[in-house]
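Bench notes, bay 3.
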Amino acid sequence: MSTLLLVLPLLMACSQRQLPKYPATDDGITRMRLDSAAFFDARHDTRHAMMQLKAAEKRLFTVRTDSLRFLTYYHIARLNAQDGAYRMALDYYGHAARHANDAKRSHRMADVFLGKASVYNQLGQRDSALWLIGKAEAFRPRIRKDQVQLIDVLRKRVRQHQILTISPEKDIEIVQIQDRYEVALAQREALRQQLLFTYAFIVLLVLAAGIVVWLRYRMRRQIRLYQRRLADTEMTIQAALRKKDSTIEEMKAEIDSRVSELERLRQSVPSRSEALKNADSIEQTKLGVDTLYTILKGGNLSQMGRREQLAVNAIMASIDYDLSCVLNNPRYAFTPKETFYYIMEHEGRSDEEKAAAFCCSAQALRSIKSRLNRKISSR
């Protein structure tokens, strides 16, 4: 018993060492399929032999060796001819002939010609069969002895009008085997394509979700940055208004620069939510500074109204407190033109400059001045 236990592992090791080793490449897998087909063919198992050959044929597009292509096509043609599928056999013999390009070209072409000759003899085309036998014989003496013997056998069979008897169902069976394999292969390929499409769709969904999450995170970060910059801008503008030694030009340039920077930052954010609107105080301050700048520079005041008046009154407390007390006094209830006139009068502008700014005549200007004086004197 102990001796048997020692011998069995040795026998298994020996049998494993005798197994052929196939590299994990397309050439190696094709070689394995051809050997498997030869194994089944030797046992007259045409079905499994053909399935192995069709599996080998599937890999021929990536095989680098012409001999493997030739052997695959040749054996498929031989099995088809053997079982009566003659038209399919001729097609595969033609494929095999296109790959008989190695050192054994004479042997391989002789096999193809003899195989075709046998098929044509079965089809009753004896002239074509004899012509192909002659082409195979032209390779002598560079062909094998079994090929020489087959030439004599085929020539004798053709001249004596001998045709091998094949069961009528054999050709249908061999074609069905190949068709079923092709259908199964096509179904598997369709499933593989569907699986790849599903994977690609899932990847695209995950990618789209990731992009959406990233964009939302980026947008929120930019909104937070915008809000911080907005608060800083508001503080900077208020500081600029409180500077006593700054001119209206410097004040306007500082505010325009800050607002422009804020607007560029807002434009860089793809969202247009309420969080990206400028603060009302900034808009009001900018409008007040722009209006005051227009008043002091003698610009056109004819189109300015209540909105500009309120904006000027709002910033005047930071620039000139005494003037602001007069403009914002509720007893006076100045109109926009009266407010602008009073500022120009306070700055020492001439009547000509005032008339040009209001785009009015001297009589209209005197009317504005008269109403303003009555309001002030009635205090």
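Next record in the batch:
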Amino acid sequence: MMRPRSYRRVLIAATALSVMSSPLVMIDGAQAVDAPGARPTGAGGAVPPPQTGDLLYRVTPLISLPGMDRAAVTTGVDVTDASMLLVRIGPALPGHGDDGSGGFLTGPGTIGARLNLLKTCPGGEPENWRPVAANARGNVMGVGECRSWEDSQVSQLSVVWSSLDDFSETVDECPAGSGCRVDAVALNARGAALTTKEMTVAHSLVTNVTGGGQSRELVAEQDGMQVRGTALADDGTVVGVMQVRVGGTTVWQPFVAPGRAQTPVPLPLPAGIPASAVGSEVRLLTSPDGKMIIARIGDSVVSWDAARTATISAAGSGFVPVDIAADHVVVGRTPQGPALWRGGIVRSVQVRRLPGDARLVDAGAINKHHQIAATMGYPDGRRKAVLISPVPPTER
């Protein structure tokens, strides 16, 4: 049975990985992705229409786990500023053996370690575990389930590992039979974890920040309104969407809770974006310094600067923001594949020497060097995590 404590230390064992012949690629500096020359603006300082360009990257296949099914799915989840790649494992494709849930963290010139989940569930079986984020300290955040051996009841935990050879700490949980679901959302550089908890019976949704010297729940000014945090800055700033009552109607609205504030502050929508375009599924992102916020709302990309002035850009480009680098370059998805956004301009990512018939299908995160945690796909349905890095101008 699960021990009734909100914080639990869980032993992790490290599993050695077999290393492929090529090390992960390292590059020097973010200038490799900057557009040449001055960035143009339209009349009155308006953001110009989106453009595509040639941002040249190179890719190195992921370090493999011994004994993993060739059809096992791996996904690039996050990449730290030290070029450590966080990888999610599974699920396996239909008709193949179960490769197990979980993930591992690996980097250039290192032997990575897989999260051993056998001791994360005292008295039970771990199920459906997935890594969510990693930070520069080597902390890893994940979420999963524990099925009791005694009565098959399922509890859900969100945990943070301070390092892969250390114990983990439970930062949020939903005990078996509680009627709630917890989700691991984000982990910042100071070790603070952002989680959400949804009570299915009471139809309530709360957002918590735990660790990194703080512990707080975001509470809307209006009673009974749901708050869904979607990103966390290094100073504790949380962004997301919340419910507000307007007349007799309840609508969703983007918010920011700056620093360590508990009360979310509504963010203004720019002209041309109706309030009805904002739903519970809208995902706001914040830069590590908390000075930039961006989201896809409807068919447009909306960004807010440090003064929280809203601007529409990249309308019709299909760009969906995924993560923000320290210098406010944004990696995202488009129908054509991963792309970068900066100052309202969207540029596609072109990858040099993809193996065989693979193509880049997704991007998960970006670091200060503009390296991207990505996923490549094959025609037979396989998905493999990769680290892609900008090609320096001297090598183009």
